[in-house]
């Protein structure tokens, strides 16, 4: 591997350089923080995250529950305001947008939820759900046009023949079909960015792949940028293979780089543990593998974070000294950003 | 299936622990109306074996698991077949014919269940301690004093790597998902059952938590030598925890074999499709296959092979002839490889293997 210095001004399209201005990114998070007040004290759910979503590219957020993936996504979609930091859409700070701009932002950034059983209105037909946005924004003249537009959208997400599905209610459809309806609804607004929050985790393995392939086509053919949240590393690897992956732990990004590099050669001990913990569908591999032993199994409480590196109570690489006194910054290495004292020291 | 007794396998030479013979499970859907959710399932489970039941949702995995312990909801009934179980005292009983009190003794003492969704399995207004007390009292018949029960509970919790002082006095909602699942496993093992049925034991848990539970379960099985039937849609979990795998589709067992049979030489196109739809994490990118559509409704099964409408390898006769579960390679102790596919031999010669 050739060690090269980090370029001062990263080239557009080059994957991993947050903190360097919006560049060619459509949607950027800059140092966003989110704090929830609870009776037990303030919970810093997201503590300073920089992320960029580029057109036609996938940025995948992975991590355990409670690490701030969904909270970051909600801020990116404008569903929650960060307490510090900013969200930029096409270089404009979302907080400073007027009504018109905000409307455009909301149309261009669409959110697909995890549970297709909860995210569709049970008393609306598929036609009504998919065309609601079109009708609301006056993008279709009449009912006939709305039906035609809805049918086209259903075809785009492989719900064919579309005519058969238009008048169905959600309860008449399977989980996979419902999730496709949710995707079609998001597509109605011609979004530039789709934020998919665990959108495939509720589905059977067989259906998961075909939905991922549908999403992949939108990414490649329409140039939609994806902020893709998942806890399933196999899905992350498949969907974001040519994109980037950012691993979050307790509200911070700990490793961020091109997917192929991060998955095949994880550097942060947390990423390494995550990848190591995956159950592979290969009995020989599963049995003959030396597993990483974490020092502790439980995630620290966000209201009572340990001093130093958040991961040190569980970290197999823990060394006395910096690890339990100084929080490691996320610093650029030769092919990724990494927050670990031990690995960065070499 | 032929039974060849292996003289070297001393502890299991007495025969299977659980012998499921032609079991149908039905649900009442209205007056005189019934759907059969599980059809004609047979398998033998020997002491200490671990068997995974895999398949998509709606294939009858959970229904079968519940049926084995007669835990079906009120509308469900095991409508045909036998569920023979060899109890600790050596008697062979048919779980279907056990009387009420006997059934209660059977459950938990002989066979226990770990349910999906650990939160729903607990009573939210009872402390963890009370769950243990209730379990011992209901299924053991008050043989132990309160102090002895609590002592044993602490021991069980330590076995799953939990701190009894912290867990016993808490309410279920105070525990994290992984701790709840581990508590549930400790509870299931309370009366040293010979068989543990686990329904999606790690679904909805974080990956590191899942890893610690999977490892602990494997270790506990070594220590306590119980047999396991676990229901999962996560094929990785099956590869790791099971000695043998049964694939279910539309209520039938369509392939069964050792874990290596299933993952390296699957002979049913559905099993291969399921395995190939999981992208592996290690190595280079392998494009997973998609398997469009879903299983047919059990109320309206196609006449031939239930999988034929989705099968890439189906030929005309698949639509009219229902394949039987044929043994492809005979082995003792229920480890034979069998598949219900008319073309399993052809597919074999075509070399549809991964190794």
Explain this structure:
The complex is a heterodimer of chains A (346) and B (355). Chain A is an alpha/beta fold and 346 residues long. Chain A has helices at residues 69-76, 99-108, 126-136, 143-156, 162-166, 175-187, 205-222, 233-239, 259-264, 269-277, 283-287, 341-345; strands at residues 27-38, 41-53, 58-62, 84-89, 92-93, 109-112, 193-197, 225-229, 244-249, 252-258, 331-332, 337-338. In chain A, helix 4 packs across helix 6. The longest helix of chain A has 18 residues, at 205-222. Chain B is of the alpha/beta class. Chain B has a single domain, classed as Rossmann fold, CATH 3.40.50. Chain B is 31% helix and 22% strand. Classes of the chains: A alpha/beta (346), B alpha/beta (355). At the A-B interface, helix 7, helix 8, helix 9, helix 10 and helix 11 of A face helix 8, helix 9, helix 10 and helix 11 of B.
What is the secondary structure topology, with strand pairs?
The complex is a heterodimer of chains A (346) and B (355).
Chain A: E1 27-38, E2 41-53, E3 58-62, H1 69-76, E4 84-89, E5 92-93, H2 99-108, E6 109-112, H3 126-136, H4 143-156, H5 162-166, H6 175-187, E7 193-197, H7 205-222, E8 225-229, H8 233-239, E9 244-249, E10 252-258, H9 259-264, H10 269-277, H11 283-287, E11 331-332, E12 337-338, H12 341-345
Parallel strand pairs in A: 3-8, 3-9, 6-7, 7-8
Antiparallel strand pairs in A: 1-2, 1-4, 4-5, 9-10, 10-12, 11-12
Chain B: E1 18-30, E2 33-45, E3 50-54, H1 61-68, E4 76-86, E5 92-94, H2 100-109, E6 111-114, H3 118-121, H4 128-140, H5 146-159, H6 164-167, H7 177-188, E7 195-199, H8 207-224, E8 227-231, H9 235-241, E9 244-249, E10 252-258, H10 259-264, H11 269-276, E11 326-329, E12 337-339, H12 344-349
């Amino acid at each position: 591997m050739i060690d090269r210095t980090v370029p001062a001004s990263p080239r557009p399209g080059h994957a991993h350089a947050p903190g360097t201005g919006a560049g060619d990114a459509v949607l950027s998070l800059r140092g966003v923080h989110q704090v929830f007040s609870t009776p037990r004290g303030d919970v810093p759910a997201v503590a300073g995250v920089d992320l960029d979503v580029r057109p036609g590219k996938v940025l995948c957020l992975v991590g355990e529950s409670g690490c701030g993936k969904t909270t970051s996504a909600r801020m990116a979609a404008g569903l929650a305001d960060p307490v510090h930091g900013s969200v930029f859409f096409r270089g404009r700070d979302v907080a400073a947008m007027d009504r018109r701009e905000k409307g455009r932002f909301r149309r261009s950034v669409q959110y697909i939820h995890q549970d297709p059983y909860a995210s569709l209105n049970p008393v609306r037909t598929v036609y009504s759900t998919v065309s609601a946005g079109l009708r609301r924004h006056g993008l279709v003249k009449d009912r006939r046009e709305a039906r035609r537009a809805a049918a086209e959208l259903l075809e785009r997400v492989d719900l064919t023949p579309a005519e058969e599905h238009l008048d169905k209610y959600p309860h008449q459809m399977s989980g996979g079909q419902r999730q496709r309806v949710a995707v079609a609804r998001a597509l109605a607004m011609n979004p530039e960015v789709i934020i998919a929050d665990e959108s495939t985790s509720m589905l059977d393995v067989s259906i998961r792949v075909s939905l991922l392939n549908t999403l992949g086509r939108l990414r490649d053919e329409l140039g939609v940028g994806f902020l893709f949240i998942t806890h399933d590393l196999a899905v992350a690897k498949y969907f974001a293979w040519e994109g980037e992956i950012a691993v979050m732990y307790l509200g911070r990004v700990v490793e961020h780089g091109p997917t192929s590099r991060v998955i095949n050669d994880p550097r942060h001990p947390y990423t390494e543990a995550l990848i190591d913990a995956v159950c592979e569908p290969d009995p020989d591999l599963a049995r003959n593998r030396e597993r990483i032993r974490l020092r502790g199994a439980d995630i620290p409480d966000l209201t009572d974070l340990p001093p130093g590196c958040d991961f040190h109570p569980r970290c197999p690489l823990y060394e006395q000294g910096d690890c339990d006194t100084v929080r490691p910054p996320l610093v650029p290495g030769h092919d990724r950003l990494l927050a670990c004292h031990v690995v960065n020291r070499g | 299936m032929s039974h060849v007794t292996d003289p070297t396998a001393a502890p299991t030479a007495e025969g299977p622990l659980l012998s499921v013979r032609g079991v149908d499970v039905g649900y009442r859907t209205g007056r005189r109306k019934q759907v059969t959710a599980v059809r004609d399932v047979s398998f033998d489970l020997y002491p200490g074996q671990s068997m995974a039941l895999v398949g998509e949702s709606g294939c009858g995995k959970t229904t079968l698991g519940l049926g084995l312990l007669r835990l079906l909801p009120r509308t469900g009934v095991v409508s045909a077949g036998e569920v023979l179980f060899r109890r600790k005292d050596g008697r062979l009983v048919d779980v279907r014919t056990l009387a009420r009190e006997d059934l209660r003794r059977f459950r938990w003492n002989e066979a226990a269940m770990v349910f999906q969704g650990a939160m729903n399995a607990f009573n939210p207004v009872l402390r963890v301690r009370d769950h243990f007390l209730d379990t011992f009292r209901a299924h053991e018949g008050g043989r132990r004093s309160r102090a002895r029960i609590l002592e044993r509970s602490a021991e069980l919790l330590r076995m799953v790597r939990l701190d009894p002082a912290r867990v016993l006095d808490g309410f279920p909602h105070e525990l994290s998902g992984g701790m709840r699942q581990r508590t549930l496993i400790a509870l299931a093992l309370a009366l040293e059952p010979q068989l543990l049925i686990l329904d999606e034991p790690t679904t909805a848990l974080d990956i590191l938590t899942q890893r610690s539970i999977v490892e602990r379960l494997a270790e506990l099985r070594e220590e306590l030598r119980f047999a396991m039937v676990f229901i999962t849609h996560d094929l990785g979990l099956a590869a790791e925890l099971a000695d043998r795998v049964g694939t279910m589709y539309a209520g039938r067992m369509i392939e069964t074999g050792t874990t290596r049979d299933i993952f390296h030489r699957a002979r049913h196109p559905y099993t291969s499709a399921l395995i190939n739809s999981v992208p592996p994490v290690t190595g280079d990118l392998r494009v997973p296959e998609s398997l469009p559509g879903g299983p047919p409704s059990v109320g309206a099964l196609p006449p031939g092979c239930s999988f034929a409408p989705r099968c890439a390898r189906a030929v005309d006769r698949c639509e009219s002839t229902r394949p039987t579960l044929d043994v492809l390679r005979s082995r003792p102790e229920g480890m034979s490889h069998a598949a219900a596919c008319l073309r399993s031999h052809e597919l074999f010669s075509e070399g549809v293997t991964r190794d």
